Amino acid sequence: MKNTSMTYHIDPVGFIQSPYKEKFAVPRQPRLAPSATSRLKLVGEANSPEAVRGIEQFSHLWLLFLFDQNLEAGWRPTVRPPRLGGNERIGVFASRATFRPNGIGMSAVELKGVVQEGNQTYLELGSIDLVDNTPIIDIKPYIPYSDSIPDALGGFAEKEPDVLNVYLSIEAQKSLSSHPQKAQIEAVIKEVLGQDPRPAYKKGKADNKEYAVNLFDLNVKFTVDSNSITVTAIDRF
């Protein structure tokens, strides 16, 4: 009889540097916030130009990563996907829920280039759906002829989520006006908040609560009505 209680040790090959400083408001899939570019800092033996030699031939990569902030919480056989309103239960393997048996996720991301700064190797990436400092456990090239399946079915996630209009108050605009990354940050704020990051049961509903999310080096406060979001204040950390 095979031993079914085997354990394996995995060391990260790198860590993500992204605008998302917390889980709240991170897009549920990559490319939903195209302005939120990121960087992958390679570590250990993977921190070598040799390890990524030839990778520029590929426009996109698969990143395998750990949901490191959820590992201690464990998992259950069924989950409530936000796309189903947070009420209907389905099997964890029929979802991309973050609470999984081994806490492993994957994302297809754009590769924008390879940068060498002294002895440090970085991969410059496009839009991503990962919290800052997420551990990456493997990197694989995206192969269009095998990885893209045009007639595949998307189940309950067949279409992209609806996007709300996002407006910056005069006060918020003033706070952002002198920031050196103003243009990118404003775009990221609108793309991220437009997904309505509130709990699924609040989607499509107005409420009186003021929410806040940490993006880049900023704390962004906002309110939500039935079809739009208003950024009320932006404060530096």
What is the residue-averaged pLDDT?
A: 92
The CATH fourth-level homologous superfamily of the largest domain: YaeB-like
Whole-number count of domains: 2
Encode the helix/strand succession as letters: EEEEEEEEHEHHEEE
DSSP helical segment count:
3
| Structural class assignment | mainly beta
In words, what does this structure look like?
One of its GO terms (biological process) is tRNA processing. Homodimer. GO terms for molecular function: RNA binding; tRNA (L-threonylcarbamoyladenosine(37)-C2) methyltransferase activity. Belongs to the tRNA methyltransferase O family. Keywords: Methyltransferase, RNA-binding, S-adenosyl-L-methionine, Transferase, tRNA processing. With 237 residues, the chain is mostly beta strands. It has 2 domains: 14-157, YaeB-like (Elongation Factor Tu (Ef-tu), domain 3, Beta Barrel); 165-236, RelE-like (YaeB-like fold), CATH 3.30.2310.20. Helices cover 10% and strands 30% of the residues. It has 3 helices and 12 strands; from the N terminus they run E-E-E-E-E-E-E-E-H-E-H-H-E-E-E. It has helices at 144-147, 170-176, 182-193; strands at residues 14-17, 38-42, 60-66, 78-79, 90-91, 104-117, 120-125, 135-141, 165-168, 211-215, 218-224, 228-236. It has a 6-stranded antiparallel β-barrel with strand order 1-2-7-6-3-8. Strands 9-12-11-10 form a 4-stranded mixed beta sheet. Strands 4-5 form a two-stranded antiparallel sheet. A hairpin with a 2-residue loop joins strand 10 (211-215) and strand 11. The chain is globular. The protein starts with 13 loop residues before the first strand and ends with a strand.
